[in-house]
Specification:
The chain is an alpha/beta fold. Helices cover about 65% and strands about 10% of the residues. The chain is elongated and about 115 Å long.
Length: about 575
């Protein structure tokens, strides 16, 4: 874990070293001040020597100014190092997440990744700041104060050395007990973020079904869980404060009692007593700082483990040693393919898929919910890897391609269409960042999106809200299709991507595909028979198996599932929206 995180500090090693040197300088000057105070009392005030008073007084001022300067330097450079470390961690995690396959992402919830990128990184950078300053300052102060105390009077110094050992042991025990609760707390943060994310994303559904009270209770429950965990941890840590106060005052009483007898006996000066009292406070305050450090580090260690999980996660899908950088054509071959989402799954999602598609063909895919339609097309662009068998695109195994090359040539319009905040043109150029406005218009005309874009006040410069909430479902689907077309792919996959489009517009889109991109292989998943009946071939999936593969006419004769779906959809008055519309 430490090795994983350490490489993100490399950039700030120099700044971290300067912070440490400034902290050491600050501590050295501060711990030297009591010695000067003792000299003023013994050689100046009690001796009535004004010259000594002024000399040591001036020295104290210089040392105080020097300590202040070192403290400011330590704070400045420490903040720079800690914030930079945090920034590097966020950047490193975000870049790592971009390399994840779908199966990698499935291991982490979205809310969990958000917590790691925000709360956990904040805990780490705060801990690093404390590590550079307080964690360095406290032990150095403790050691220096103890050494100087023993130099003044070993007998008296032994008293608060014992107290320091006892208190230090107590702090370690309390921190270890609290750590397990901090580990659990950050997992509860994931549940809290998940509740917020679900509510905000689905706020329209929440309001439509009047479920505000239910969502409030769910959020309160998640927040209450975090509260309970923190209370348990803090109850343990709370014992630290009274233990600290009792130790400080008891030690000072013992120190004063012993020192008073020594002063009366002439074995100690008043200045030495003043110095010892200051060193006693320094030792015990250092222990108090260490207790705060233990609490922060307990939280930081829990966060560090979670961050390291993401950084150490290896992508399941990687480029081969010598990949292909060109896809010859859009032919697709499934050769006895088996697939499951998890290696330990008892049952495969797809079984013995053996399908062969020529370049330029249009393939319809139909089947009930959970029959493996989306899983089938996800294997073509290698969003997942097969468990057994192989998938070929353009005559080569998809595992032999450069991933970016393959996914640029296999364009997918996913089931859940996603638009991003920005103009329509900016969203379209996700398909091709260098596309001209004219190319964007042509793609939109093919996807039947140009007609409604032209009616918008600012046309192609109309701003799209995050998630595309200011356009209808059908408009969002057509924009996503146009975006995919801009890639000019050799294989185009529409995963139920016209479900919100009326049948007349759906027919126009399919006609445009036939006429304008005849050489592109098209896979169309749809629950509408009318959307795929004119396809070159139709695949009927049932429980992960190919139950039928052929033309509409062939399947009507040979496949019971397809025939029953067709009859159920065509009996009566047909599709309600066949007239057209948005």
């Amino acid at each position: 874990m430490l090795k994983t995180l350490a490489k993100y500090i490399q950039q700030y090693k120099k700044v971290s070293l300067i912070t440490a040197l400034c902290t050491i300088g600050e501590v050295a000057l501060e711990t030297s001040l009591p010695l000067v105070t003792a000299a003023i009392i013994d050689q100046g005030i009690e001796a009535g020597n004004l010259t000594k008073i002024l000399l040591y007084g001036g020295l104290m001022i210089l040392m105080a100014v020097g300590s202040l300067g070192c403290g400011l330097g330590s704070a400045h450079f420490g903040a720079q190092a800690a914030m930079g470390f945090g920034s590097n961690l966020r950047d490193g995690m975000y870049r790592k997440i971009q390399t994840f396959s779908f199966s990698n992402i499935d291991k982490f919830s979205t809310a969990g990744l958000v917590t790691r990128l925000t709360t956990d990184v904040t805990n780490i950078q705060n801990a690093y700041m404390m590590l550079l300053r307080m964690c360095l300052r406290a032990p150095i102060t403790l050691i220096c104060a103890l050494v100087l105390s023993f130099m003044i009077n070993p007998a008296v110094a032994s008293a608060f050395l014992v107290a320091a050992v006892l208190l230090g042991t107590l702090l370690v025990v309390l921190s270890m007990m609290a750590m397990k609760y901090f580990d659990e707390t950050f997992n509860k943060y994931d549940d809290l973020n998940a509740s917020v994310q679900e509510n905000v994303t689905g706020i329209r559904v929440v309001k439509a079904f009047v479920r505000e009270d239910y969502e409030k209770k769910k959020f309160k429950s998640a927040a209450e869980n975090i509260y309970q965990m923190f209370v348990k941890a803090e109850k343990i840590i709370a014992y630290n404060s009274p233990a600290m106060m009792i130790t400080i005052y008891a030690t000072m009483l013992v120190l004063s009692w012993i020192s008073a007898h020594m002063i009366v006996a002439g074995n100690m000066t008043t200045g030495n007593l003043s110095s010892l009292l200051q060193y006693c406070m320094s030792v015990l305050m250092s222990l108090m700082m260490l207790s705060m450090i233990f609490v922060m580090l307990s939280m930081a260690i829990a966060s560090a483990r979670r961050i390291a999980e993401v950084l150490n996660e290896e992508p399941d899908l990687v480029n081969p040693p010598h990949p292909f950088f060109e896809v010859p054509d859009g032919s697709v071959d499934f050769s006895h393919v088996y697939f499951s989402y998890h290696k330990t799954a008892r049952k495969d999602v797809l079984f013995d898929i053996d399908v062969h598609v020529k370049a330029g063909e249009t393939i319809g895919i139909m089947g009930g919910t959970g029959t493996g339609k989306t899983s089938f097309v996800n294997l073509i662009s290698r969003l997942y890897d097969v468990t057994q068998g192989k998938v070929m695109v353009g005559g080569h195994n998809v595992r032999d391609y450069d991933l970016e090359t393959l996914r640029n040539e296999v364009s997918v319009v996913l089931q859940n269409n996603q638009l991003f905040s920005g103009t329509i043109l900016e969203n379209l150029r996700w398909g091709n960042e260098n596309a001209t406005e004219e190319e964007c218009r042509e793609a939109c005309k093919m996807a039947c999106a140009d007609e409604f874009i032209q009616r918008m006040p600012e046309g192609y410069n109309t701003h799209i809200e995050q998630g595309g909430t200011n356009v209808s479902g059908g408009q969002r689907q057509r924009l996503c299709i146009a975006r995919a077309l801009l890639k000019k792919p050799k294989v185009l996959i529409l995963d139920d991507s016209t479900s919100a489009v009326d049948t007349a517009t759906d027919a126009k889109i399919r006609k445009a595909f036939r006429e304008q991109i005849p050489n592109t292989t098209k896979f169309i998943i749809s629950q509408r028979v009318s959307s795929i009946e004119d396809a070159d071939k139709i695949i009927v999936l049932e429980d992960g198996l190919v139950d039928g593969f052929g033309t509409h006419e062939e399947l009507m004769k040979t496949n019971e599932i397809y025939r029953s779906i067709y009859e159920s959809q065509t009996q009566g008055s047909g599709d309600f929206d066949e007239v057209g519309g948005d």
